[in-house]
Amino acid sequence: MSASKLVTLREAIARFVLDGSSVCMGTALEAAIPYAAGHELIRQARRDLTLIGPISDILFDQLVGAGCASRIIAAWVGNVSEGLGHNYRRACEQGVPAPLAVEDHTNLSLAMALLAGSTGAPYIPTHSLLGTGLLESNPHFRTATDPWSGAPVALIPALTPDVAILHVQRADAEGHAHAWGTLGVTREAALACRRVIIVAEEIRTTDEILSDPNLVLAPPGKIAAVVHEPFGAYPSPLQGFYARDHGFFARYHTDTRTVEGTRDWLRHWVLESGDWKGFLARIGAARLDALRAKIPRPSLPVDLGE
């Protein structure tokens, strides 16, 4: 019997991301960032979120500007192609629109923290943070002595987010998902968190997805909801589907330079657009078509024959 988890994005956020949740997003670094889900968090006025991710590009900046976040656990927050994130900077320096606590990580230490969470380990030792200021800026890091060599090591505590929101190329209704291209810490995040919301470009049959079980991202038991949202990672790129829209990032950088500008940007692009389809309608079909992948480059299929 089919156990469909296919719901609307609105329902998925309403049911599985509550105020005060820790939410892991942007796990593929600059690609496959779940902007559609982020906009729904803003529309549903989520508050007191802890945002976790290596490089969130402008998604975390939008959520900070909308007052959704009270804490950030990340390696970097800003605008990859334009520089700083104005909302993130205002929150850190001025407490506008709300104070923001920050736990500094590197991309590697964040990956290790999620890896520890995914395996049930309390921490992972590393040499990489020794001699850096991160041991002082993040009070959760510890130092210890390697019991074998006697050398100092840094200890990175496990991260186990309440929910990970992952954008993928395709999934079935039960939660089997395929993701490819730059994965970053996507697999570690899926296994470390308590539940996963999958946002997919395509919904395929279970037989199609299980035709290559090695590509399945995480056990379906971890998946709380599956959402079909084409172009749901725009303006970030998604391998095999669409390219990054550099112009959108540039306009965001200019438009959000002030508090008033951010308010207008959120009203136009998020709140008044109503939903993700309304947002894409404002981008325009011609622009989206221009970003679509034009030249297929399929990988060599594997033979699972007996």
Question: Can you tell me about this structure?
Answer:
Helices cover 33% and strands 20% of the residues. The chain is an alpha/beta fold. The strands form 2 sheets. Strands 1, 2, 3, 4, 8, 9, 10 and 11 form an 8-stranded mixed beta sheet that branches. A hairpin with a 5-residue loop joins strand 8 (163-171) and strand 9. The longest helix is centred in the middle third of the chain and has 13 residues, at 107-119. The radius of gyration is 20 Å and the shape is globular. The two termini are 27 Å apart. The model has no long low-confidence stretch (mean pLDDT 96).
Topology:
Layout: H1 9-16, E1 22-24, H2 35-43, E2 49-55, H3 58-65, E3 69-76, H4 86-94, E4 101-104, H5 107-119, E5 123-126, H6 134-137, E6 142-145, E7 152-157, E8 163-171, E9 177-178, H7 186-192, E10 195-203, H8 206-210, E11 223-228, H9 246-255, H10 259-271, H11 276-283, H12 285-291
Parallel strand pairs: 1-2, 1-8, 2-3, 3-4, 8-10, 10-11
Antiparallel strand pairs: 5-7, 6-7, 8-9
